[in-house]
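Lab notebook page, bench 4
Experiment: in silico fold of construct C2
Operator: M.H.
Input chain length: 211 residues
Purpose: comparison with the prior construct
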Amino acid sequence: MKKKNTAQTLLEQQIQELLAPWPDPMSRIDFRKACHIGTRTSIYLLQSGLVPCENNGKKSRCYKISKADVAAYLLRRLTEPEYYTPPSDWYKNYPQRKPPATSLIHSLNYAAISQQKLHSYLKKTTKGYPDVLTVSQIAQITGYRVHTVSRWCTEKRVKSFMICNRYMVPKAWLLDFLTSEEYNNITRKSKKHYAMIGAVAPKPRSPRKKG
């Protein structure tokens, strides 16, 4: 435990040294240059709220980001880079992009949906795949990165076993995870995860016409 704390302390010190020359608060351009990221990535991080900021509403120089929030971003980016990955169509549609969607249904209310409907959707999604799946196949099914799926197995969030130093997951175990609250509560969901939610979530009723 001490080694872990020491390593984290050293990382935090290095990040503080990296940010020392920059003002506090930082502008978006300062943030982009200090973190070595592109313009579009910096806009995504700020507009999505992944990196907290103040926006004064001006057309230029509208963002103010505290150094503490930039430091927190850099530290977490080292261990969870996928957390900050923009949607795949973000760069494609820029600058005619739409802001990150906040109106999407972000999770399922399991009390309000039919478990049979959810299982039917997942069985259809996994049809054609073998009964025992590799990490790459699970990544294809879920839309999450191979690194993320491997981490699920390493952390025993997904039940698995090893064959020739490769994680293998029976399809039944994967379905257990995909219907769990833990999977449902993932903050940064993949497109395929959102597709699952959209397919099985109850549709809002249209208002009845009067008269």
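Observations: Confidence is low (pLDDT under 50) at residues 97-105. The chain is about 50% helix and 5% strand.
Next step: discuss at group meeting.
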